[in-house]
Amino acid sequence: MTDPLTSTEGNGQQTSTLKLVLAIACLVWYGVLWFLGLLGCFNARKRYRLRPRSPLASAPASSVPGVSIIRPLKGLDVNLYENLESTFCQEYAKYEIFLCVGDDQDQALPIVRELIAKHPAVNAHIIIGEENVGVNPKVNNLTRAYREAAYDILWVIDSNISVDPGTLARSVDALGPPPTASPSGRRRIALVHHVPFAFMTEPSLGARIEEAFLNTNHAKMYLAINAVAVDSCVVGKSNLYRRLP
Description:
Pathway: Lipid metabolism; sphingolipid metabolism; Sphingolipid metabolism. Its EC number is 2.4.1.80. There is one protein chain. By secondary structure, the chain is of the alpha/beta class. It has one domain (63-242): Spore Coat Polysaccharide Biosynthesis Protein SpsA, Chain A (Alpha-Beta Complex), CATH 3.90.550. Helices cover 44% and strands 13% of the residues. The chain contains six helices and six strands, in the order H-E-H-E-H-E-H-E-H-E-H-E. The protein has helices spanning 4-48, 80-88, 109-118, 137-148, 167-175, 205-228, and strands spanning 67-72, 95-101, 123-128, 153-157, 191-193, 238-242. Strands 3-2-1-4-6-5 form a six-stranded mixed beta sheet, with helices on both faces. Helix 1 (4-48) crosses helix 6 (205-228). The longest helix has 45 residues, at 4-48. The mean pLDDT is 86.
């Protein structure tokens, strides 16, 4: 017959061991989160404390690769005029812009036409009409522009994003030459993506929460995950890549 006292003591030891293991696991996970947070803050300071002007910003058109900027649009976003105009004002000598809407009744069209008239020197095009290639409406919106783009480097940027005048030059500089022309020893870059920085335009609780999340926890985890390179973390709001032949 089993001794009840011995059995109780054995169960108590197992419970204590399990609690210890769980406590250690929680402590390790807490440490990992702190490490990722500090790594993200370090990378943010290292990368974005200074934004040097790329040499490509002042280079002539004959010496820089061309870029096709594609902006899918639908309706009137907050600050739409300023967001779109930021791509018309890039410090880069060779680029074109495609502004894509689903139909000729879209409310964004008057703003698009006003910007094109204001910046006649910029090679800008309006694409009206979607091409149904899948379930993603954004992809359907930009497919025609993708096919009509004159250049192999594409910059797909959402309508609610505003960018600094030097963003394109720095991004092309980071992307580097095509794989066939890359010097030996240089790391090959397939995609340049931009960390979103949010600013509030409406004094609502939801806007405040989203702004706080994107500019703190999301930003540091975004940078940390890409820094340790265990996986990729990419937001599809602004991405520059090279189209394969």
